[in-house]
Amino acid sequence: MAEGDFREAIVILEDLRDDDPIIQWNLAYSYSRSNELDKAKQHLQNIIELDADSSMKIVADGRLRELQEKEDSLITTKRSLWISLSGLVCVGIIALIVVFMRRASRKVTTSGKLKPEDALTLKVQIVIALVSGLFSILTLVLTQILSG
């Protein structure tokens, strides 16, 4: 552990007695440094359940709460990234729709069926409807993610 090789430390510590709170503490530390939070939390829980010194139980309980907060923070970060990517996808889709609408309005206006002003009005109305729909869907998705 002193050399920073936590995977090797885990291999060695797993072969030792599992009823020793110090070994459990070192395993919890090694697992947390290896980003295996579930295993780290389990070893901290073992310390609390063992007949360990009360001060060690208090420290293990505090560390257990810290790991839970770290895990919650990672989940929040992942959700935020997903929300950002969803927003970028919506913007990209809207940009593609605008491009297609411009091409369609050019074809319509050159065929003589609609005046350029009417084509522009139609295009703006369609884009507004699509953007409103996409933002409604995005709002529903974000609400579901943040509530669950």
Description:
The protein is mainly α and 148 residues long. It folds into two domains: 6-70, Serine Threonine Protein Phosphatase 5, Tetratricopeptide repeat (Alpha Horseshoe); 79-147. The chain has five helices and no strands. Helix 3 (37-49) packs antiparallel against helix 4 and helix 4 (54-111) packs antiparallel against helix 5 (116-147). The radius of gyration is 29 Å and the shape is rod-shaped. The protein starts with 5 loop residues before the first helix and ends with a helix. 14% of the residues are buried. The model has no long low-confidence stretch (mean pLDDT 78).
Indicate the topology.
Blueprint (H helix, E strand, L loop, with lengths): L5 H9 L6 H13 L3 H13 L4 H58 L4 H32 L1
What's the short version?
The protein is mainly α. Helices cover 84% and strands 0% of the residues.
Count of folded domains: 2
Task: Name the helix and strand elements from N-terminus to C-terminus, one letter apiece.
Answer: HHHHH
Please mark out the parts with pLDDT under 50 across 5 or more consecutive residues, or reply none.
Answer: none
N-C termini distance: 38 Å
**Tally of alpha and pi helices:** 5
Keywords:
148 residues; mainly alpha; Serine Threonine Protein Phosphatase 5, Tetratricopeptide repeat; 2 domains
